[in-house]
Amino acid sequence: MRIAIVTESFLPSLNGVTTSVCRVLDCLRRRGHEAVVVAPSPAPREYHGFPVHGVASVPVRQFQVGLPTREIEATLADFAPDVVHVASPFFLGARGLLAARALDIPAVALYQTDMASYVLQHGGAAGRPAARATWRYLRWVHSLADLTLAPSSAALDDLHRNGIGDTGLWGRGVDTALFHPGWRDDAGCRALRRSLAPRGETVVGYVGRLAPEKEVERLRALLDLPGVKVAITGDGPSRPSLQALLPGATFLGRREGDDLARAYAACDVFVHTGTHETFGQTLQEAAATGLPVVAPRRGGPVDLVDHGRTGLLFDPDDADDLRRHVETLTVADDAWQRRAVMGEAALTHVAGRSWLRLVDDLIGHYAALARVPVA
C-alpha cells in the first residue's frame, strides 16, 4: 500500500505524536509499504528512506505549528496514496483532510491530543466558551475523515460525547527492545542510580514534557516523604518554574534512546501526573521497564493501569490521594514487596503490545478504507 502521513508534529520535536508517527513508519517499512510524510519545518528530508516534506511553520510554546498551505494537496497528488493518515489533526491536519477529500482519497484521523481540555485549562475566564468552540472546530475537522481512531476508551467517550462519529479504538505499542528491566544491570544506569539515591533512597520518577497541562507540580506532595527521592526527566516551558517549586527534585533534562531507558530503570516507582492524557505512552514504557505506575484515575491511564495489580490510580480531585498511594509503594513496611509484585505484573501486562502488532491492526483499517487486500 501507499500511505501519506500528515502530522502536526515530527522530528526534531519529541512528543507522543512524533513518537507514534515514527513507530508507524518503522513498521510500515518492515511490512514493505510505501509512505510519504508531510510535517512542520524544520524536519529531516527523510526518515528511514521515506521522504519527508516540511511545510512552513511558526513556533508556539516550543512547538512548530505547520501552516495549512496548498503544497499539501500538491504533495498528495504527486504521491497518489491509497490512504491518508492524519496524526492529531488541527491546522495542518485539517488541510490534509481537505486535500484528501478533494482528491477522493480515503482518510483516517488519529485523535491524540485533548486540545479542548488544554484550551479550558489555559483560557482563564474565557476557557469554557473557548473549549466549546474548540470542540465545534474539531467536529468539523473530523467530519472530513472517513474514520477517527482514538487511543483509549476515555478518549473515545470524549469523541462520542462531543458529537464525533465514525470512530474506532486503536491503542499504541511499546518498544520492549528498548525499555526493559535489564537496564538495571547497565553500568551507566547504576551510576545514575547512585547519583539520584546516594544513601539507597527509593526513587520516584516522572518522564514527560514539562508544561502546565502535565500538572507536574503535583509531585510537590512527595518531596518530604522519608527515604524518597524524586527524579524528573524531560524538558519544556515549565521547567524553570518547576525547578523553583520542587527544590528537592533532581531534573535530568531531555533524554532519548538508551539514556531515556536508563532514566526509567534507575527508578523504583513511576508517577504520572496529568489528567488530560488521551493515552499515556510513558506509562507503558515504565511498565515495560518493570515499574509499578501511579497515575490519575482519569483519561488514558484508566485503560493502562490495573489498579492494585500493575499499579495504583489516585483521585486527582483529592489533594492527598497521590501521596497516600506513593507511600504504600515507598514508605510502608512491605513497600519493596508490593513494588516487586506490581512491577512484574506491569511487565506481563504490556508484553503483547508490540508496535508491529498494533500497526498491523492499523494497516487493516487502511485496507478497509482503501478497499485493497492486505499483503
Which terms would index this structure?
14 helices, 2 domains, 375 residues, Rossmann fold, hexosyltransferase activity, 8-stranded mixed β-sheet, 6-stranded parallel β-sheet, alpha/beta
Fold topology:
Layout: E1 2-7, H1 16-30, E2 34-40, E3 46-47, E4 50-55, E5 57-60, E6 63-66, H2 71-79, E7 83-87, H3 92-102, E8 107-110, H4 115-122, H5 127-143, E9 147-150, H6 153-161, E10 167-169, H7 187-196, E11 202-207, E12 228-233, H8 239-245, E13 250-253, H9 257-265, E14 269-271, H10 281-288, E15 293-296, H11 301-304, E16 311-314, H12 321-330, H13 335-350, H14 355-370
Parallel strand pairs: 1-2, 1-7, 2-4, 7-8, 8-9, 9-10, 11-12, 11-14, 12-13, 14-15, 15-16
Antiparallel strand pairs: 3-4, 5-6
Helix pairs in contact: 1-14, 4-5, 12-13
GO molecular function: hexosyltransferase activity
Pfam family, one: Glycos_transf_1
Protein name: D-inositol 3-phosphate glycosyltransferase
Architecture overview:
By secondary structure, the chain is α/β, with parallel strands linked by helices. The chain folds into two domains: about 1-175 and about 355-370, Glycogen Phosphorylase B (Rossmann fold, 3-Layer(aba) Sandwich), CATH 3.40.50; about 180-350, 3-Layer(aba) Sandwich (Rossmann fold). The protein has 14 helices and 16 strands. It has helices spanning about 15-30, 70-80, 90-100, 115-120, 125-145, 155-160, 185-195, 240-245, 255-265, 280-290, 300-305, 320-330, 335-350, 355-370, and strands at about 1-5, 35-40, 45, 50-55, 55-60, 65, 85, 105-110, 145-150, 165-170, 200-205, 230-235, 250-255, 270, 295, 310-315. The radius of gyration is 21 Å and the shape is globular.
